Amino acid sequence: MIKAIDRRTLLTLSSLLATGTAFSAAADDKPASDQRRAMMEIPPDAPKVAMLIHPKMVAIDLIGPMSVFNIMRFNVQLVWKDKTSVTTELGIPIQATQTFEECPRDLDVLFVPGGLMGTIDCMSDPEVLAFLADRGARAKWVTSVCTGGLLIGAAGLLKGYDATANWTVTDLLPLLGARHVDKRVVRDRNRMTGAGATAGLDFALALSGEMRGEEAARRVQLILEYAPEPPFSNGTPKEAGPERVAEMRKRRAGMDRQARAAAQAAGKRLGI
Known about the structure:
This protein is of the alpha/beta class. It contains eleven helices and eleven strands.
């Protein structure tokens, strides 16, 4: 049985990822224990970030941005209805640190990850939608990655905004009142949405740059050595070509039908 991963474990893992480089140049004269302690301490004025978790979410949608926010020393909380662990698409359980009721009403960042089947379930869950609508109405930033864009849209948080999501569902964004923009990261006022799962790093770095300045975000990018060189030019429908796209659409036809039905139902509730 796989043990649930809690916030402390996730933060420790992402901190260890950065340990080798984060302070090597600036703090060579400090003991390693002091360096680690400095990395783990959250400043009292750190931005408050609520990251929704939900059953069947895609783990990388959460872990990528969370790693960036952790290195930036944001106050990150994982939020769900209760503190029973939820299981990602990898079968790895992750446990919330705050319930919906415990989550602060005023947030700096509200973030929603994707995972299509989990997204579809949440799009018709009144408790999830009410939480997102409430916190999103006051959050300084309302954000998502991958199919999480459909979920914040279903909560009424993308009406009249430019947005993106995983390429397989971007045609559904207008059903939720959003305007699809074909970019990896899209910002419209205080909404910032990322495309497919790997765009989570791009999104988090872009948001960090907006919140803490470009140089701070550049340091995190260097720490993570984020300089992608994919082995294939196949990461977008344009690169993959119509035949591969058609074959993938055929394989996922059932999921796409469910996603469209959920988006149509949400749009109807929102009066769109």
